[in-house]
């Protein structure tokens, strides 16, 4: 069992505070992804959990025990690095047994663990090979195998797929997910790739500038982003943000866009009359109306992806993207009329970035 909790965690390098008072928990057997742009502090946080980086302030708790001062090798947590860190002069078997030999584990037990891990990772036929004789995906699996043989309580993975080409990444992502289901151990997975986080994780921790912006399951993060940062970071193409004002009167609520265009909202919409807002709508939730019906936009680029049409244009200095499932003939310079599905819209306070709901 491995429950991990960080409590009021702060990290400074010199005078610079990198992580600002983070608190959250990771449940036993959960796969949690830490996701955020480069430099937001994901790796530093992971290294602190692993014991590779000192805690400046706060606590790291593993199964109700504060482990701030427990040495890395005594933590029962295994880390898999982006670079794999395989020994080139050792066979796959020797690479995988390395940490067990260091621990002076009996040979028979070493063998049992390596057989088991190799089978889990479909490496049984490659145990006598050297890393240079393996493909990228196989090397990645050996790196995973080295962690697996330790039978740790939790795995920490730092961008483990980033050295693989796009196709292999997708394949390994599915394999990792399946591996997690078979192993049933706690995993913390760092990535800057929101698609990877969405497809792999039970829960996602969205980080930005050393803060946690939101924690939730992939569907909650996607359907109920807490603020404009999360809304724009998760989902591709990114959510459209249309500036406007929230209006209410006579029991009605609506958004007033520039040019006087009005869009009625459900009467349950909260927020004060006159609030400056960003109306957030995902590209798949904008439809096209007939001429004069909706928000006018001039088309700039039309891209056909095979499955859908991606339409790009500008409105109020903002780039807008619309995904169309039905084929239709559209050209640059055409004017289209945007009809957002208001039931799927998000209203953000422009000043604070917070979701009004
Ligand atoms: P990436 O996805 O690019 O790896 P990240 O989110 O993992 O980014 P970190 O590597 O944790 O970010 O770095 C967070 C911040 O801490 C960065 O501004 C980085 O420059 C700084 N930093 C990391 N390690 C050190 C260090 N040893 N000394 C000083 N500053 C550091």
**Number of helical stretches of at least 4 residues:** 8
The coarse silhouette is: elongated
CATH topology of the largest domain: Rossmann fold
- Named CATH architecture of the largest domain: 3-Layer(aba) Sandwich
* Proportion of residues in extended strands: 35-45%
Give a list of the ligands. Answer: adenosine-5'-triphosphate
Helix percentage range = 10-25%
Radius of gyration: 25 Å
The CA-CA distance between the termini, in Å, is: 37 Å
Summarize the biggest pleated sheet. Answer: 6 strands, mixed
Q: What's the SSE pattern?
A: EEEHEEEHHHEHEHEEHHEEEEEEEEEE
| Total separate domains | 2
Mean pLDDT over the residues: 93
Instruction: Give the tally of β-strands.
Output: 20
**CATH homology-level superfamily of the largest domain:** P-loop containing nucleotide triphosphate hydrolases
What order do the strands of the largest sheet run in, or round the barrel if closed?
6-7-8-3-9-10
Derived structural class = alpha+beta
Organism: Bauldia litoralis
Keywords: ATP-binding, Nucleotide-binding, Sugar transport, Transport
GO molecular function, one term: ABC-type transporter activity
Membrane topology: Peripheral membrane protein
Structure description:
This protein is an alpha+beta fold. The protein has two domains: 4-233, Rossmann fold (3-Layer(aba) Sandwich), CATH 3.40.50.300; 240-349, Nucleic acid-binding proteins (OB fold (Dihydrolipoamide Acetyltransferase, E2P), Beta Barrel). The protein is built from eight helices and 20 strands. Strand 16 and strand 17 form a beta hairpin. Helix 2 runs parallel beside helix 4 (136-148). The longest helix has 18 residues, at 166-183. The mean pLDDT is 93. Adenosine-5'-triphosphate (ATP) binds at residues 13, 18, 36, 38-44, 192.
